[in-house]
Amino acid sequence: MIRTRFAPSPTGYLHIGGARTALYAWAYARKHGGKFILRIEDTDLERSTPQSVQAILDGMAWLGLDYDEGPFYQTQRMQRYAEVIQKLLNDGHAYYCYCSKTELDRMREEQRRAGLKPRYDGRCRGLDKKPGAGETPVIRFKNPLEGKVVIDDLIKGRVVVSNEELDDLIIARQDGTPTYNFCVVVDDYDMQITHVIRGDDHLNNTPRQINILKALSASLPQYAHVPMILGQDGERLSKRHGAVSVMQYKEEGYLPGALLNYLARLGWAHGDAEIFSLEEFVTWFEITAVHKSAAKFDPEKLAWLNQERIKMMSEQQLSQLVHTFLPSGFNFSKPSLENVTKLLKERVHTVKELAEHARVFYETPSPNADLLKQYMNAQILEHLMALRKPLETLDWERATLHAALKQFVKERGLSFAQIAIPLRIVILGSTQSPSIDAVLELLGKAETLHRLDRFLADAA
Ligand code: GLU
């Protein structure tokens, strides 16, 4: 049975790089009928926060990346780590190291001077000494002295690291707490992870982790190291490049399906498919087809995809989302939010943008001073005043509205825009909207005339 995991450190929000790694691990498990496990790597007590844990859980829930087991917390597994450390000591795979900081500094300095790479030289390896009273040694793993570690990474291909390059990793600190790399190994072992799919910033850790797994006589998982996501400038993606937190995309009105679609496609391709459902992705996904090199994040493409996905949604579903971006207290049946959504959905990139446009159907916008200055004058006011009359008696439908406006501008020798733009400003507060007749139809006669009257009264 295939078992994958996502193992974030809760030191911040769930960022889009993490979300993509999670998506790949999730999809791999789903495709193969396996299990997907969530593990919170919270052993770094100083940097881990409950808020970050919550942000990760919220992000996963919003994206719909459901897990079959967990969340497991490393801080709740301390006893198990202690047990495995003891086992490694008993089996001669680990040893106490009594070197002081000064001694280690001196050792490294000498190595540097001799032109060598600084590394622990294993001087306590043969001591075989249990700590006496008051002694607080660290515990190191006995890395093999010879041979090499071969990783047949499912994405990166074969990576070979000679054991001579690896020194004896500290697995327990002076206070007895286990170190990060060690906890990962014990967890992957206990959770019977078959495929470790993670960011390639962890590729360096893999040979050490494999050696520890071997010492535990564990069967080795397969590894797939997913390249980083970079900004357009080729730098590692950070806040500087805009939103990087998954939940920020929620707040900005992105659809989880669009974000997943974008992230899936970023660094992986299936022919020339750009828009696909999560189900299609799961069917098509091959971990070995993930690109070897880093991908560049393109916010414009994401916005485009979001727009396409918004268009594909039913008005009924979409309007429920739009609702969450609007203040409560409006009467969303007059006009119906579903109809407003239908009118606006072709034109927006985000649900939030849609909600902003929808808002003017439920509350009279205050006229924008700059626009008024630019488009309003005594003559236009006179036109608007005159327009009131034909509108008042009109059979209120899009086609008749259109005909009436056409007739009106024709009689007065105006272009359509000369009346449509000021009308938009008065009724909707901005110059942009779908076709004015459609907007007026939806807004209704009473509300349209009410807004017009209010404006004309204020202007008088
Ligand atoms: N906790 C690590 C991180 O957030 C991931 C470790 C792993 O996947 O092995 O980067």
Outline:
With 460 residues, the chain is mainly α. It has helices at residues 16-31, 50-63, 78-90, 101-113, 180-190, 206-215, 246-251, 256-265, 278-284, 299-312, 315-324, 337-344, 351-359, 369-375, 378-392, 398-412, 416-428, 436-443, 445-459; strands at 3-6, 35-40, 69-73, 94-97, 138-141, 148-153, 157-162, 170-172, 195-199, 222-226, 229-230, 295-296.
Plain-language structure description:
By secondary structure, the chain is mostly helical. The chain has helices spanning 16-31, 50-63, 78-90, 101-113, 180-190, 206-215, 246-251, 256-265, 278-284, 299-312, 315-324, 337-344, 351-359, 369-375, 378-392, 398-412, 416-428, 436-443, 445-459, and strands at residues 3-6, 35-40, 69-73, 94-97, 138-141, 148-153, 157-162, 170-172, 195-199, 222-226, 229-230, 295-296. α1 (16-31) links the parallel β1 (3-6) and β2. α16 packs across α18. The strands form five sheets. It has a three-stranded parallel β-sheet, covered by helices on one side. A three-stranded antiparallel β-sheet has the order 4-5-8. Strands 6-7 form a two-stranded antiparallel ribbon. The chain starts with a strand and ends with a helix. Bound molecules: glutamic acid (GLU). Glutamic acid (GLU) binds at residues 7-9, 41, 184, 198-199, 202.
